[in-house]
Amino acid sequence: MSETETLDVIETLEPSAQSYEIIIGDTTFTQTPLSFFRKIELFSVLADAIDKALSEGAVISELLDDMPGDTSDLKEADLFIKTIAKVIKYAPDLLGDIFCISLNIKRDEREYAKELFEVMDDETAGKIMNNFVEQNWDAMMDFFSKQVSPLMSKVSEKVQSRSMQSTPSKTSRRRTAKP
Fold first, then answer.
1. pTM surpassing 0.70?
2. Any domain includes 2
3. 24, β-bridge pairs
4. Is 53 in contact with 63 (CB distance < 8 Å)?
5. H helices of 14-88, where?
């Protein structure tokens, strides 16, 4: 395989896209769209955070009530951030984990990176979140529309089915003998 063919394969696996350099303290991070495995890691982190929220009494429909059904409106990014904020209430490390995945920080360097995030200014954090949404919007919507939404529908169907099966039928009155 020639060098050009190798580059074509790499381009197919990891397409070129806008990347952003983020400087926190004296460390520079490069933020790029999520690769296949980083998407899977992100979905795992999101699923764990939602699971934690549910175990602490959250209701999934309340967590996701702001999530858009259609991905054509620009204000949906704002709704997505609001949804993440609701989940962060139950899983406060979620945003740090998302930043680490978004910035492609190696697992063994993440605790150090999270310490750097502690002193991050609002502008830098905003840039990271905006870049993340810009680069990964379709992947995020796929997660909620193709993974979470069908799961919610299935659970709802099961609950309705079970409640219909467990509803006792009307019993007829006992007849008493007349004296």
1. no
2. no
3. 27
4. yes
5. 36-55, 60-63, 76-88
